[in-house]
Amino acid sequence: MLRDAPGPTVECVNEYLVERYLPGITARQLDDASARLAAAAIELAADGVEVRYISSTFIPEEESCFCRFEVRDANAVRRACERAGLELARIVETRDFPPRTEEE
């Protein structure tokens, strides 16, 4: 289930990571791409495609960016990236492992 965060909700979700290589990209271009990706996900959700863009992380030293999504399947992630006009290297499913406490 989704955590408390803004944006559309998605039932029975998986998490996916989009890997992008962005040599020479500027901070402004990163901001613009992130805004386009968020807008694309919202538009798709309004059209009934269950997808939620979570965030992006840029690694300057490697000129790479990782965009996180919650969706039912990778196809919705690809559609969001295409609608935002973003090229990608690959899409992979991910799993988060929150820290466990001693009581668990």
Short description:
The chain is of the alpha+beta class. It has helices at 27-46, 74-84; strands at residues 14-21, 51-59, 64-71, 90-94.
Cα radius of gyration in angstroms: 14 Å
Total DSSP helices: 2
Class from secondary-structure proportions: alpha+beta
- Summarize the biggest pleated sheet: 4 strands, antiparallel
What shape does the CA trace take? globular
Secondary structure tally: strands? 4
Distance from N terminus to C terminus (CA atoms, Å) equals 20 Å
Stretches where pLDDT falls below 50 for ≥5 residues?
1-6
Percent of residues in helical segments?
A: 25-40%
| Residue fraction in strands | 25-35%
Strands side by side in the biggest sheet: 2-3-1-4
What is the string of helix and strand elements? EHEEHE
Describe this structure in words.
- The protein has 104 residues and is of the alpha+beta class.
- Helix content is 30%, strand content 29%.
- Strands 2-3-1-4 form a four-stranded antiparallel sheet.
Key terms:
4-stranded antiparallel sheet; 104 residues; 2 helices; globular; alpha+beta
Question: What does the secondary structure layout of this molecule look like, with pairings?
Answer:
Blueprint: E1 14-21, H1 27-46, E2 51-59, E3 64-71, H2 74-84, E4 90-94
Antiparallel strand pairs: 1-3, 1-4, 2-3
Helix pairs in contact: 1-2
